[in-house]
Here is the input.
Amino acid sequence: MTVTLIAAIAENNALGKDNKMLWHLPDDFKRFKQITSGHYIIMGRKTFDSLPGILPNRTHVIITRQEDYKAEGCIVVNSLDAALAASPQDEEVFIIGGGEIYRQAINIADKLDLTRVHGIAPEADAFFPEIDTSRWKVAGKIFHPKDERHQFEFTFETYIKSY
Here is the structure.
């Protein structure tokens, strides 16, 4: 199994505030869909609640402490270990948030697929964990300027764990 953390984060690692994203970047959404389609996506309950609904062509695995939580068409578990055990062992799986789930998963992840949003240090209540550059190496970067559809510049960054 390859475990990939995928997130859009500000330069200060901000993820969101009040269970909402801090920006609207259509090309980031497009990339997220392209990368995660056909795969299992693991998330915390609050992240699931923030989605517009079930994301098509993906199997949703929701981690929650709530014993009686149900989400039709989703796998509901109570730990990251259970989420990984419920996912295919021979495929790439994606962890899509939120901050606490990223913190639990960063040390077991194999890859980070980040959209680094430039030029803002927003007020946030959820953050991506610090990336230890002695353990993670940049495998690729693609810069995207701001334009009529994107209020901010951003860079797609891929990190691979260096063992």
User: Anything to note?
Assistant: The two ends are 16 Å apart (CA to CA).
